[in-house]
Design brief:
Elements: H1 5-40, H2 44-63, H3 69-83
Length: 84
């Protein structure tokens, strides 16, 4: 439990940010999993159409500060390589 008023406010803000970050990470995992299942199933044309939206979702996660830029660059590279 927080001992001061500022610590209480900080805790509330941290909880909001944690929930926001969790929803973004969950969405990232869902999008990436959908893409990987398409590639694994051999539906490369559908996966190719989905790739730009996956990249966009990853870039938005970086923009909001949820995931570091190098991590996203690595994921984008590996997803594109898996498609090829």
């Amino acid at each position: 439990m927080p001992n001061t008023k500022s610590a209480e406010r900080r805790m509330r803000g941290s909880a909001r940010k944690e929930q926001h970050n969790r929803s973004i990470k969950s969405n990232l995992r869902r999008v990436e999993k959908n893409f990987r299942t398409l590639v694994a199933a051999g539906k490369k044309d559908e996966a190719a159409k989905l790739l730009p939206s996956v990249h966009s979702t990853l870039d938005k996660a970086v923009k909001s500060g949820v995931v570091p830029r190098p991590t996203v660059n690595r994921k984008k590279s590996r997803l594109a390589a898996s498609l090829n």
